[in-house]
Amino acid sequence: MNHAYVFPxxxxxxxxxxxxxxxxxxxxxxxxxxxxxxxxxxxxxxxxNLHWTSFSTWDRxxxxxxxxxxxxxxxxxxxxxxxxxxxxxxxGYTIRVFSHFQDPPSxxxxxxxxxxxxxxxxxxxxxxHFARLIRxxxxxxxxxxxxxxxxxxxxxxRKIISCTGEKAELHLKGETAWAEALSLLTETEYPKLEAPxxxxxxxxxxxxxxxxxxxxxxxxxxxxxxxxxxxxxxxxR
Length: 237
Known about the structure:
Blueprint lengths: L2 E4 L5 H12 L3 E6 L17 E5 L12 E5 L9 H10 L2 E7 L11 E6 L1 E3 L8 H7 L14 E3 H10 L6 E5 L4 H6 L18 E4 L6 H11 L15
Parallel strand pairs: 1-2, 1-4, 2-3, 4-5, 5-6, 6-9, 7-8, 9-10
């Protein structure tokens, strides 16, 4: 059985990578900083192929031939260069995932670096504009959104897993523009966001498995909001 390590596993994308790997029959070791596991882990927690451990108590051993998935996209402050290197040194193969605004901390000669635009879906952090609109969170901190496009986080995770074995720089390209997605949530004009300075890697196209309306419906329900039928745009926030 293939064995994968995901760190940090409790992040927005990290959780979906764990889920996608389990769907493909992998044995998964979910590593994290020791944060309390959320209720959503009950969705996959009963899977006998899932093993959870804190990075601080992990024995630092990666079995020969195992694959490592490092979603820097979630929070590079939780995944330091040293921690990433510890995993990469022992892995048979490594996939790292970045936003287009992030630079790799080192080279990845034995694997692939994959770049993604804005990811949307359940448990999207409030560091993203869509989540702030849905939850009516008003803060002055800069958003992390990438205006080059949006991709459903589950679709991104499944595509990333399907790229296993590649040894290259790649970037995922969705079907939907960021502005198009925003127009479903608000009619208020939003200041133009800064685009990434460059888009690295070979383009990998993704076909959406769900409509934007369905994805945002999930996020609205998660926030405890009942949307009336055909009531997009959701608000004038």
